[in-house]
Amino acid sequence: MNLEKQLDEFYSMLDYRPVSSNAISIYFVILTIAKKSGWKSDVKIANSILTSKCKLSISALQRARNELITNNYITYKKRI
To answer: How far is residue 18's CA from residue 35's CA, in Å, rounded to a whole number?
Structure first.
């Protein structure tokens, strides 16, 4: 995976599938962590990390994450 290519694709799709600035912030954090993990297909990120890095409440995080899921930018599996 290539970070630059991923970002270019994301920005291109925002014209067709717009999301909030909170969702964009979360997406960038997810990409950064995915890059550091060696682009593993499944990256596990605790809500506390996302809320801390994006300065969001848990409810704002959930809304923004749902935007990304609904617009097919990410997939999400709830931890049990």
So the answer is: 23
Element (H, E) at 61: helix 58-70
Q: Show the domain range for 46.
A: 3-70
Q: How high is the pLDDT of residue 5? A: 87
* Residue 80 located in a structural domain: no
CA distance 2 to 9: 11
Number of domains comprising the chain: 1
In a domain, 78, yes or no: no
Q: How far apart are CA 80 and CA 71, in angstroms?
A: 24
Question: Are the C-beta atoms of residues 14 and 20 closer than 8 Å to each other?
Answer: no
Q: pTM of the entire structure? A: 0.90
